[in-house]
Amino acid sequence: MNAIQHDLNILKKLNFDVEPVAVSFLVKRPDGIDRLEGIMTFCQMIKRAQEGTPFYADFENHACEVGPYILGGREVPHSFLTGEYGVGHKHVKEPRVMRRIYQSIPKMEKNIIDYVAFSTIEKLSFEPDVLILVADINQTEILLRAMTYTTGKVYSSKFTGVMGCAWVFIYPYLTGELNYVPAGLGAGMKLLKVFREGSIVISIPFDQLPTILKNLEDIPWVLPLHQPDGEEFRLRLRRDLDIDQ
């Protein structure tokens, strides 16, 4: 496993209610951390990492078929792919609608990833592929501004109400795009109460992490416009730029 290349301490200043969780996708069994005991869903592994020590999971640790499927390890049952299972759960009206969703779900290529490592940033000993944060709206606003401050990237949220873990784990890793979704939109995650209701789940891919960390050092965490004298600031700026005479 790759050693940590970046100082994540500035994230602690955001005072998250639950610790950010680093995730690494591995082709070989990692050294130095233990295998997860028992089975659980892919999304539940985030909560488990927040509550305990670092661990890695293999396909035998997954209680839900979707995790191994989006990791490229196993196929889901045929009734999933036909759409009948989704119709049975009332997610969609017709099988063809569910089949369309399957066409859009991000997933790894087959037979490449065998293990996934999890750790909070407090106990982290490896370089994250994706960093997952559970934030409120103010923390989210700061992180999104840190993303766009030197890049001009547009805020973009992608999600489906089923197989939501694909958009939290796989989408940012494959695309290099930060993703953020309100907790409670995913059927399974809502059922299992993985995230606090009303929170926002943010997934930062490894290639955006250095920029965001650096920009968190540079940006004002509260914009001048949102300070107590924000209106005076706005009027003064307009005069300085000769917008208002």
Description:
This protein has one domain. Helix 1 links the parallel strand 2 (34-35) and strand 3 (55-57). The model has no long low-confidence stretch (mean pLDDT 95). Helix 6 (137-148) packs across helix 9 (209-218). The chain is globular, with a radius of gyration of 20 Å. By secondary structure, it is of the alpha+beta class. The chain has a 7-stranded mixed sheet with strand order 2-3-4-1-5-7-6. Helix content is 34%, strand content 13%.
Biggest β-sheet description: 7 strands, mixed
- Helix segment tally: 10
- Intertermini distance: 60 Å
Proportion of residues in helical segments: 25-40%
Bulk shape: globular
Number of domains: 1
Number of strands: 7
Q: Stretches where pLDDT falls below 50 for ≥5 residues? A: none
Q: What is the arithmetic mean of pLDDT?
A: 95
